[in-house]
Amino acid sequence: MPKEKWFKADFHIHSHFSPDSDMTPEDILKAVKRLKFDIIAVTDHNTIKGGIETKKLAENEGMDVKVVVGSEIKTKDGEVIGLNIKKEIPKNLSLIETCKRIKKQDGFLIIPHPFDKMRKGVGDHVYEIMKYIDAVEVFNARTLFTKFNRDAYEFAYNNNLPSVAGSDSHFSFEIGSAYTLIKARNIDDIFASIKRGFTKIKGRKTGLLPHLKTFTTRFGKRFNF
User: Fold this and answer.
1) Tens of pLDDT, residues 134-150
2) First to last CA, the chain
3) 130, CA 20 to 30 Å: which among 41, 56, 64, 224?
4) In angstroms, rounded to a whole number, what is the distance separating the alpha carbons of residues 118 and 120?
5) Can you give the residue ranges of every domain in the chain?
C-alpha cells in the first residue's frame, strides 16, 4: 500500500470564462506549476468551459498537476461549487435543485464563503442542504472580514463537516494565497481523504485590491474596453 503524503490543492480558481477574471488556462497553469500545486479546480461562474480547457491543456502538455473541472454556480439562495461535473448546470435554480444536479453527476459539493454577507454566500440556507455537502470552504482569501471565515470554520467544526480553503483567484497574483493540504495515498484518493477530514488549511487574506480589479475587469468586458 502506498505511503500517505500531503498534496497541495486549490479548488476555487476562475479563468477568463468568468466575466470578472482575465486569466487564461496558460496563466493558471504557469502559476500553479511555479507554486508546486498537485491538484487544482477551475470553477468559473456558471460554466465548466474554463475547467475543460485548462484540464485539456495540462494533459496535452504532460504536466504533473491534476486539473478538476468545476463551476461556481449561482442559485436563488447563494453560490455553491460543483467539482467533477461533466454537464453545465444552469444558474438561478433553487439551492436544493442545484445540489441535486451536482450529485446526479456524482459531483463533489463545496460550499464557498457560506457566511460572507458581502458576497453570494448561502448563509443560513446551508442548513437546508446538509445532506448534500461534501466540504465547506472555511477560509476564502477574498473574504474581507475575518468573522465571515471564522463563522464558516465554526459551522464546519460544529457539524463535523470536512474543511477546505480556496484562493478564489480571478487574477494570477492571487493564486497561492490560500490552499488546502490533503493527506492521501495518491492523487486519486484526494476526495475520499477530504471526506475523512484529512486536511490542513493554509492562507492569507488578499484584501481589497482583487475586488477593485474584479470590478474594472467586469466593466471592461461588458463595454469592450
Assistant:
1) 999 999 999 999 999 99
2) 55
3) 41
4) 7
5) 5-222
Query: Domain 5-222 carries which CATH code?
Result: 3.20.20.140
Sheet order of strands, 108-111 included: 163-166, 135-140, 108-111, 78-83, 66-75, 39-45, 5-13, 178-184, 199-203
pLDDT tens column, 122-178:
999 999 999 999 999 999 999 999 999 999 999 999 999 999 999 999 999 999 999
Q: How far is the C-alpha of 183 from the C-alpha of 5, rounded, in Å?
A: 5
- For residue 79, how many other CB atoms are within 10 A of its CB? 24
